[in-house]
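STRUCTURE:
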């Protein structure tokens, strides 16, 4: 039997490859790195087990580990499998990683609703299957088991869930709790197991109120006392997104200025840029009608039934659909499309940029934006006043002096 190598003899080894040091213990030299390997057979299968680099483990320590591994083999157990199991026990579970990932990403999201949605989808769909597993054990089979039941019936939810699972597993890899490819990636993994979302889901666009019907819808909303109808009325007057309008507080309004305005902070805007909204006389009257004597600056203007909570999107959508034809699919986002269609059909071409600014859309490419140092506020003051006039019946033909602007 070959003799065991001494420390000096091990240090003298320079040739790349695997060199026997003692019984079952080997030195691997590769690319300038030196590490200890344990060679053994388990159930007639030859296996290797890494102990670690030589700069962290001495020859004596490596030999002691080899002896410990041989004792495990003597009991009929696999030393590498036992070591890996111990590591997994100390690893974070998927549920723990999901929560840590959400906490890490939350500061970059525009509102708390994102974090709530992440937690809910993970809790409802993912955790029952993989929440208890060490995150390094999660594989594509687990993800298919999670996604397949809802892939064709709740495609939008499923695709968003897949994206969230991918982000969570990426976080786990960057934090050192798993390694290798991300099984939640679409192109390299799940595209081979699930059909394309576009093939199983019909795209459903936001349904706008027809421009010709907008004044009647506005009048019907104005006749109702429910706060949900008031939100819908305010949205149609200001063409804001639902959350931008529904979460407004009194301190964001300046109703007594020469041009009454609402200033929405960047945290509530999709583009993360503060947005000034000129308020028409109709919008000012609506907001003032909701003010109570004891209203505080931080109070919500459109407070729902629960104290300190804004009206839900569902309630506002219900109010909007309640003033239209039976089974209509109108929603608050569609009201923005109604406004944009009105501008395209009844206003001069010069109002196009002002309309985009009113909708808080990006104006042109990055070069255009860099040179356009204006939010077109003054042009929007007139445009939004004319839109309110059209809705309230003052300008039923919808043109609102556009003809004279083009002369």
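SEQUENCE:
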């Amino acid at each position: 039997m070959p003799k065991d190598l001494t420390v000096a003899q091990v240090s003298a080894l320079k040739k790349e490859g695997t060199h026997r040091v003692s019984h079952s213990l080997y030195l691997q030299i590769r690319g300038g790195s030196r590490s200890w390997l344990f060679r053994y057979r388990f159930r007639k299968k030859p296996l290797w087990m890494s102990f670690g680099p030589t700069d962290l483990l001495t020859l004596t320590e490596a030999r002691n580990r080899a002896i410990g591994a041989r004792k495990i083999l003597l009991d009929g157990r696999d030393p590498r499998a036992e070591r890996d199991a111990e590591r997994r026990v100390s690893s974070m579970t998927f549920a723990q990683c999901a929560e840590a990932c959400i906490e890490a990403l939350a500061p970059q999201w525009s509102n708390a609703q994102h974090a709530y949605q992440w937690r809910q989808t993970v809790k409802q769909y993912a955790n029952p299957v993989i929440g208890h597993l060490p995150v390094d054990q999660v594989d594509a089979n687990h993800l298919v088991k999670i996604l397949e039941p809802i892939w064709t019936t709740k495609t939008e939810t499923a695709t968003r869930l897949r994206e969230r699972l991918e982000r969570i597993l990426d976080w786990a890899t960057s934090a050192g709790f798993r390694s290798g490819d991300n099984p939640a990636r679409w192109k390299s993994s799940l595209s081979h197991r699930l059909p394309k979302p576009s093939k199983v889901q019909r795209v459903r666009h936001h349904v706008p109120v027809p421009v010709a019907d907008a004044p009647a819808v506005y009048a019907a909303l104005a006749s109702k006392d429910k706060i949900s109808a008031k939100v819908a009325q305010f949205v149609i007057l200001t063409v804001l997104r639902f959350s931008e309008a529904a979460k407004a507080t009194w301190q964001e309004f300046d109703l007594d200025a020469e041009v009454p305005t609402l200033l929405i902070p960047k945290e509530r805007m999709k583009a993360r840029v503060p947005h000034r909204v000129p308020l028409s006389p109709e919008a000012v009257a609506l907001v003032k009608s909701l003010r109570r004597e004891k209203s505080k600056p931080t109070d919500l203007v459109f407070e729902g039934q629960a104290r300190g909570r804004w009206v839900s999107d569902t309630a506002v959508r219900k109010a909007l659909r309640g003033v239209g034809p039976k089974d209509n699919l109108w929603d608050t986002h569609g009201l923005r499309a109604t406004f944009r269609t009105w501008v395209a059909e009844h206003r001069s071409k010069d109002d196009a940029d002002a309309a985009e600014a009113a909708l808080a859309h990006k104006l042109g490419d990055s070069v255009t934006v860099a040179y356009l140092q204006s939010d077109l506020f003054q042009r929007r003051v007139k445009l939004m006043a004319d839109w309110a006039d059209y809705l309230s019946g003052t300008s039923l033909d919808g043109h609102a002096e556009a003809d004279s602007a083009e002369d």
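REMARK: The longest strand covers residues 33-42.
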